[in-house]
Amino acid sequence: MLKRAIILLVLPFFFLGCNQKPDKVTHKHTNALINETSPYLLQHAHNPVNWEAWSPEVLERAQKEDKPLLISIGYAACHWCHVMEKECFEDEEVAQMMNENFINIKIDREERPDVDQIYMDAIQMMSGNGGWPLNIVALPDGRPFWGATYVPKGNWIKSLQQLTELYKNDRSRVTQYAADLANGIHAINLVENATDSDFYNLDQLDAAVTNWSQYFDSFLGGYKRAPKFMMPNNWDFLLHYATANNKPELLEQVNTTLQRMAYGGIYDHVGGGFSRYAVDTTWHVPHFEKMLYDNGQLTSLYAKAYAVTKNEMYKEVVDETIGFVQEELWDENGGFYSSLDADSLNDEGELEEGAYYVWTKEELQQLLGEDYSVFEAYFNINSYGLWEEGNYVLIKDKSDAEIAEKFNISVSELKTKMDNALGILKKERAKRAKPRLDDKILTSWNGLMLKGLVDAHRYLGNDKYLDMALKNAKFIETEMIKDDHSLFRNHKEGKSSINAFLEDYASVIEAYLALYEVTFDEKWLNHSKKLLDYTKVHFMDSESGMFFFTSDEDHSLIRRSIETNDNVISASNSIMAKNLLKFHKLYPDEDYGDIAKQMVMNVQKDFDTSAQGFANWLHVVLYENQNFYEVAIVGENYKELGKQVARNYLPNSILVGSKEEGKLELLENRYVPGATLAYVCIEGTCKLPVTTAEEVLQQIKSFK
User: Fold this and answer.
1) What is the pLDDT of residue 25?
2) Does the CA dihedral 343-344-348-349 come out positive or negative?
3) Are 424 and 406 in contact (CB under 8 A)?
4) How far, in Å, CA of 470 to CA of 321, rounded?
5) What share of the chain is helix, strand, coil (3-state, %, to 5)?
6) Sign, Cα dihedral of 443, 549, 651, 608
7) Residue ranges, the chain, pLDDT below 70
8) How far, in Å, are 84, 235, 265, 285 from residue 277 at the CA level?
9) pTM here?
10) What is the pLDDT of residue 382?
11) C-alpha–C-alpha distance, residues 607 and 614, integer Å
């Protein structure tokens, strides 16, 4: 077997962040990546390796030269990517071997998730593990036959030597293995059109959630495992399910999780915002990179949870997270940058993970003076809060009331003391070397942040968040949407170069639709519908009824993927299913609803045993099995009445509104001069109009 002839050196480093050296004034080497805009690719532009970006032309040249591809995939906030860069890709000996025997391709996985997901499937099939850096050796046509994550220099050289000899001397075996692997890569991504199934019902959903709940950590929140990822789509669905079905024990689990995450070191108590994940079970020590997509989704989640519970801590988390995003990831053009690195320079001038965020006890005592003792108890400057080598990561484990009682002060006085202390720390932290910024702008992640801002405005009532949302929405409109209603994936310094993927369309469609619901500006609804219709033409698979990840107008890869599993970000197909179901309510004569239902039926066989991996899909199960309300508001004060209704958590609903007659069917023949009326409807069948938000809510509760 070829597997035995190849040394597979795969280490399971999942979602690990990266470091890089500051650019020098002069460079001994410069490769083709110097022409790219991705910060990650530019970080490798002065390696002695002859890196090139992924393109059809490079693959064509590899086939002409009959050289295997060496494909290395990572991202700008990836720690082990740059450990390997330093050890291997900056090394002259290694570079010479790579340049002589391979066509070397560097890929930013955040720019090209289409390529990344195929090769991630490949390495998991070969080894059972995956992660970044993801290093693949493939035939000139792109079919892989070897893979590894981080590999130290000595093992890297040995592996490349063996692969070179194998490719030259035993080509038939290499080709056969690559062919078999390619077949497997295709097979694991097939989705069948389940035409003989009944739609998933509430009894089945109850059983699936019961099975799912056995994995909950009821004390610390999240799941009983480490590392702990925040998985906002899981808790977002469970919030919906618990409130719609009167499940107080599940709502308690959601609240425990949200509280513990906000208490933990994974939340930046000094500057706001969340890190990538916690390496432990207590949410204490984060992997310190801070990603736009996490913070966008968590902004939505905490805003919705605030609407349900009116817990002031949730409101503070939303405010502080948006404050972080605005301060660190907000471009003056209205777009949002991608991430902050995990690593930064320490006092010795060396790159160190978390150096920007952690504190020594001595520093805190000196900075906080007489308030140190309260701060020490509040943020556990003790064995519980200790990370390593005398460094502390701030973590709470007691309520404000408990700490205030211990020090015989009021909660408001405690809050004032802690706000002042955190302000001092923020000012001091600003003197440190900051983590490097990945300043590329990605459409899908901007869609997630736009949805977060809309939800924050909707449920917290802060108009500043609507202003930010509108500026971001206009940026997407002017810079990312093309004349034919297709999208760009990326943007940096005025340039966009990559066609968008399904996740870009799905997240922007969802965000624009949500923006319409809080503004009633039909421009955003029209943009959303045009993008949706574009995906039906260019992404839909007529055989399975699902949507491909890539457009039919893009260069084909070894597989045209269909993404179905909800991960840290919800699957593009699950977001599309939700979008389609909601558009069905607005445009019932089109086929949106039929497509959405068929999509769910195609994947529902996995709900029983893997509900947590399909959490975003399960919203559609609730939409279809329970009442879904269309609320139409017409009249002079339609915006104000709409705002009052929207502040309530109503996940099974969609809001439409206009001053007089509207173009939507739901808004036709509703206008009465001198009145502002609200109509609560199901599939166009409406109750008698009412004039207040309270009456709307009462009708929703009593709708038969």
Assistant:
1) 60
2) positive
3) no
4) 18
5) 50, 15, 35
6) negative
7) 1-25, 704
8) 22, 15, 10, 8
9) 0.94
10) 97
11) 7
